[in-house]
Amino acid sequence: MNDSIGLIGLGSLGLPLAENILAAGHPLTVYNRTPHKAKPLGDKGATVAASASEVAQTCRYVITLLSDDAALKEVTLTDEFARNLGADGIHISMSTIAPQTARQLAEHHARFDARYVAAPIFGRPAAVAAKQAWVCVSGDAEAKEQVKPILSAIVAQGLYDFGDEPSTANVVKLAGNFMIGAAMEAMAEAMTVAEKNGVSRQALIDMFSSTMFASPIYKNYGTMIARQVYDENVGFRLPLGLKDMNLVLQMASEVKAPMPLAQLVQSRLVSALAKGRENWDWTGLAYGASEDAGTHS
Amino acid sequence: MNDSIGLIGLGSLGLPLAENILAAGHPLTVYNRTPHKAKPLGDKGATVAASASEVAQTCRYVITLLSDDAALKEVTLTDEFARNLGADGIHISMSTIAPQTARQLAEHHARFDARYVAAPIFGRPAAVAAKQAWVCVSGDAEAKEQVKPILSAIVAQGLYDFGDEPSTANVVKLAGNFMIGAAMEAMAEAMTVAEKNGVSRQALIDMFSSTMFASPIYKNYGTMIARQVYDENVGFRLPLGLKDMNLVLQMASEVKAPMPLAQLVQSRLVSALAKGRENWDWTGLAYGASEDAGTHS
């Protein structure tokens, strides 16, 4: 069972990841709470397990990609899961979760000699499929060294190591999602004021995303925000964006670091959901600036 | 006098620009309100004029790089200046000013058949010296075509044309400075919360400025904000940052486009000046997030 990989959670990131694991030639065991998502992978050669604990029993490496802290704790913060994972086992936790949850899981698993590596992922589904995501890792040093080549082979174009503390990779992940949200709000306000002054939204972002802000976030999200189309190509839904921004503010409150810009981004997400936009991509938070300016309704 | 260039304003951007104009082989006439700054350029072959109107009389192209709208209007919104500039003359206005000021100047000059091209510049002094700035232009189409090769030869690594309306380049410039301020606040909050969670400020920005935010603003300003050193290498002083953010908010108010993030950035600049930081670089607005979190004082 040395190179067998388990994957728990077959959402928009989990599914392409599963395909990559199979393509890389690893034996794969999957588990999803709603079983119908696992079926097509079973047809492609994956083993479909009946529970998370069963995955831990048969796989040395167990990746989790679940939607939130509660779902993750429900399936992995159990004695059975950690015992089945055992002394050789490594839980590779890729969800965006609170740093506190990461610490809790690492301590829990350690009681059964199992190890926990935090490996949250930056990348939308297409980037995951193309193995072009960026992954930050933290946790047990030896476990990390085993995990890194696997992550490189199945998902990451780049790995960033933030040390031995299991929670720090999640801190970085939350800080990064906050910075993306902040960049979206900045682009939204800039495009709105420019548009009302007769400058095309697209021309504005074409210049900035080719010069001072020549980077993936400003290019890709900038084009979506310029077009104001938020219900196509939905890579990361608004409710998940709000969940993450709530985690950012919770973390900020715990360490006593006021984040007024994070609060602004969170309010945009809350407002978008108040308007029934739960199926929009989270770039849709940018629509708030236009609505406030009376240019869209 | 066909290729003679006048330059009014020898501040931190004007001086390196003057050197570039001389190096490109153009006859150069300079004027600065405080004359001692012009002297070294006179020693290098520039003609030192006694007034802005004299510059307009002897040069076909007159560049202005003055600190604010009031200074610009004082020296160029006069009948004498526009009359001296005349039918062949082009005023190349590179300061960051209100769109309304640009319209006013273009209309004024037109009464004397002189033309106005807005060409505000993105670039700190070192970038200007290296001809690596980005310039957005707008205004009279024929005048712009004459001006573009000059700007490419003396300052710009790239030119972006925003049409015939004289004010639009200034709209873009203000939107861009706002986006820089917003990015600095985002980095400041992200680094502060990360630091209080045990993640190095530099490690955080090293990752982000190499991946999702791999762009000049996040790399260069990010390093300054990670180090928290704001009184060395001062390329753009805090009071000028506040002046620009006030122009952003004034423009936003005029067209009725609420910009809550611009207000937050403006408040950071106001607070920094309240604390006596007028000689800091404007990246120093980032210190506010640290102070609010009790990590610096």
TrEMBL record, chains A, B:
<dbReference type="Pfam" id="PF14833">
    <property type="entry name" value="NAD_binding_11"/>
</dbReference>
<feature type="domain" description="3-hydroxyisobutyrate dehydrogenase-like NAD-binding">
    <location>
        <begin position="169"/>
        <end position="284"/>
    </location>
</feature>
<dbReference type="Pfam" id="PF03446">
    <property type="entry name" value="NAD_binding_2"/>
</dbReference>
<dbReference type="InterPro" id="IPR036291">
    <property type="entry name" value="NAD(P)-bd_dom_sf"/>
</dbReference>
<dbReference type="InterPro" id="IPR008927">
    <property type="entry name" value="6-PGluconate_DH-like_C_sf"/>
</dbReference>
<dbReference type="InterPro" id="IPR013328">
    <property type="entry name" value="6PGD_dom2"/>
</dbReference>
<dbReference type="InterPro" id="IPR051265">
    <property type="entry name" value="HIBADH-related_NP60_sf"/>
</dbReference>
<keyword id="KW-0560">Oxidoreductase</keyword>
<keyword id="KW-0520">NAD</keyword>
<protein>
    <submittedName>
        <fullName>NAD(P)-dependent oxidoreductase</fullName>
    </submittedName>
</protein>
<feature type="domain" description="6-phosphogluconate dehydrogenase NADP-binding">
    <location>
        <begin position="4"/>
        <end position="156"/>
    </location>
</feature>
<dbReference type="InterPro" id="IPR015815">
    <property type="entry name" value="HIBADH-related"/>
</dbReference>
<dbReference type="InterPro" id="IPR029154">
    <property type="entry name" value="HIBADH-like_NADP-bd"/>
</dbReference>
<dbReference type="InterPro" id="IPR006115">
    <property type="entry name" value="6PGDH_NADP-bd"/>
</dbReference>
